[in-house]
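Late entry, written up from scratch paper. The run itself happened at the end of the previous shift, but nothing got recorded in the book at the time, so transcribing now.
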Amino acid sequence: MKTVYLSSAYLAPVEYYVKLLTGDKAFIEQYDHYMKQTYRNRCTIAAPDGELALSIPTVKPDTPKCPMRDIRISDHGSWRHLHWNTLESAYNHTPFFEYYKDDFRPFYEKKYEFLVDFNEELCRMVCSLIDMQPDMNRTTEYRTTFTPDEADFRERIHPKKDFRQEDPEFFPQPYYQVFQEKLGFLPNLSIVDLLFNMGPESLLVLQQCVR
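Output as recorded:
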């Protein structure tokens, strides 16, 4: 029995979904202190000129150490419209964008108050599209010690950390990417990159990413 602990994440990278796939149980942390410039509110996609980060603006919390579960989404800068247009222009020519776009569009039309709720609903929807059924729950407290059967990836899956050093079990499997001829293969992008390019084969790619 292997349990994995993950941070809440916005359209998390491939590595995150490999953890959801391979763990018997997953706990999504909601009692950690919110930090900017992490996957909690940003994802990385492939644009024509290379990797592009999309960030969800958040309401500045009243205290410096605000639990993730209390972080509210800001309406600043028409971000929903911007993110959707960016996803559409980046992935419009992929084999499966047309097929999945109606599943994703509602998330950019409905207003969510809390970031954890938005991230969780989006993650569950993505899992259903990939045909994954992870046993996924939110944490009820913040833990600092773990048993040998528990793996803490809350801060290890991070845009500023090298997955090769943080997670030797994760081996990104190259798959077709629409800008590959120009950019080469870009590993560990947001799960939407895999889904829009590979469709139903996404699950197979995730399974192959485990050493």
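The CA atoms of residues 81 and 149 lie 42 Å apart.
(Scratch paper discarded after transcription.)
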